[in-house]
Structures are given as C-alpha cells and as structure tokens.
Specification:
With 244 residues, the chain is an alpha/beta fold. 44% of the residues lie in helices and 14% in strands. The structure holds 3-methylbut-3-enyl trihydrogen diphosphate (IPE) (2 copies) and magnesium ion.
C-alpha cells in the first residue's frame, strides 16, 4: 500500500522545510561531475513542489544554497547560480497557483539572478495556493545576527526599550516572519545535522532524516516522511495526558 493512502489528509503539515542534500554524491556514484547531480536535483524540486501543493501544504521552504556554500569551488558556485536561472519555471508555479519567495542574503546573489527571481516573485505574488520559498545565501546565524543588529538600533534610538525584546519581537525580525514555524523538517542525503538552517524556527519541529540522495527523493519518500510525522506526538513541553 502506498503511503499516500495512509496519510491523514486532515492533518497535513502547514509548513515543511527541506534540506536537499546529496546531489554531489549522487553524481559521483554515476561517475559524473557534481553539477550533473545539481541538475538532477533541480528536477526533484519541480516534482516535490507540485506534490506538496497538491497535498495542501501551505509553505515549502527549500534549503537551496547556504552562506557556507559560497566557499565551494568557484565553478560549482557558478553552475548553481546558472541553474537557478534555468530551473525556476514560472509556468509550473502559475499552473499550480504557487507563490514564489526567497529568504537569505539576496544582495549577495549575482545581479542577473536577483532580477530573474524578483520577476518571478512579482508575477506569482497574487497566487493564493502554496508558498514556495527558496533559502538562498541563507544561514540561521546570518539571519539571527541581522535581527540582533536591527533590534539594537531600535533600542539605541529609543524606539523600543530592552524590556520589549520578546520571543515574538525576535521572530518578527527574522526573514521567515510571514510564515509559521516548520512543522516538519526533512533532510535527505544521510547526514544527521541542521547545517545552519532555520535554527530558531525549528525549536519544536519534527525532524526526519533519510539516506536517499536528493535526486532520488520521490513522491513515495515524501509521503513516507509526512506519514511518519503524523505518527509523532507533538507535546511542546506538556505531558501526553495534557495533549489528549
Ligand atoms: C546539496 O547537495 C545541494 C547544495 C548544497 C547546493 P550537495 O552538493 O551538498 O551534495 P553532497 O552532499 O556533496 O552529496
Ligand atoms: C546544506 O548542505 C546546504 C544545502 C542543502 C543548501 P551542505 O552539503 O552544504 O551541508 P554540510 O556541509 O554537509 O553540512
Ligand atoms: Mg551536501
């Protein structure tokens, strides 16, 4: 029986975050360049995005390029940036009523990429279905540092007092301020770590790790992750009795 039949359609996670890992190793296994793996990974992005929208997920945030990924060999970075230009398919987004957005240090991206992504955000801004958010030149430490800087300025200018710094205020200064925290975080590719992704936001997310390399991650694996998520009891610090 497919996992799709076992998923409770009334309890679909609102926000799913994915660390799409394993493109390079997938390519290497096939005796190819790492870039070949990134191209295959871009196809998985299209498929999983459509699946997520169909399931009724509201926010899909994909870790696409980290702050630390700038330290990769220049040709790999260039290939990834080119892939961004080629693989954002506006047609698919429009067809599925998907709104496109990005989080991260946008200004660090090549001008051409910035322009193309901005157009895509503008063209899909009125769509009312799922939001597809790419994390680009993103890291949690970067994001939290920026938030601290902005709050420090507000305190210095007297706009707010230090007593007004709350959990909610900090969250409102993060680039994810327009969405709920992830319910489910998936990492493909076998590594069991967060690699600087959504550290604040994942405080109470359910974590799901699988060995499958991102290019091989398919519908069935995705449904399995959602099924597993639905088997967990989210207690948020309370007792089991309080939940039920
Ligand atoms: C994830 O795949 C994509 C990016 C980080 C851009 P990797 O490129 O990290 O693939 P592995 O982990 O080396 O296999
Ligand atoms: C995390 O993958 C970043 C993205 C998936 C974009 P990495 O491959 O860069 O992570 P580490 O270096 O193995 O932790
Ligand atoms: Mg990796």
């Amino acid at each position: 029986m497919s996992y799709i039949e076992q998923i409770d359609k009334t309890r679909i996670p609102q926000h799913v975050a994915i660390i799409m890992d394993g493109n390079g190793r997938w390519a290497k296994q096939r005796g190819k360049e790492r870039t070949y793996g990134h191209q295959a990974g871009a196809e998985t992005v299209q498929k999983i995005t459509e699946d997520a929208a169909r399931l009724g997920i509201k926010y899909l945030t994909l870790y696409t390029f980290s702050t630390e990924n700038w330290n990769r060999p220049q040709d790999e970075v260039a290939a990834l940036m080119n892939l961004l230009l080629d693989s954002i398919e506006e047609e698919t987004l429009m067809k599925n009523n998907i709104r496109f957005g990005i989080i991260g240090d946008f200004n660090k991206l090549p001008m051409e990429v910035q322009k193309s992504l901005t157009l895509c955000m503008e063209h899909t801004a009125k769509n009312t279905g799922m939001s597809l958010i790419l994390a680009l030149s993103y890291s949690s430490r970067w994001e939290i540092t920026e938030a601290v800087r902005q709050i420090a300025i507000q305190v210095k200018t007297g706009e707010i007092s230090s007593e007004q710094i709350t959990d909610e205020l900090i969250a409102s200064h993060l680039s994810t301020n327009f969405m709920p925290d992830p319910d489910l975080l998936i990492r493909t590719g076998g590594e069991i770590r967060l690699s600087n992704y959504l550290l604040w936001q994942c405080a109470y997310s359910e974590l799901y790790f699988c060995d499958t390399f991102w290019p091989d991650f398919d519908k069935e694996e995705f449904y399995k992750a959602i099924y597993e998520y639905q088997q967990r009891e989210r207690r948020f610090g309370k007792t089991s009795e309080q939940i039920s």
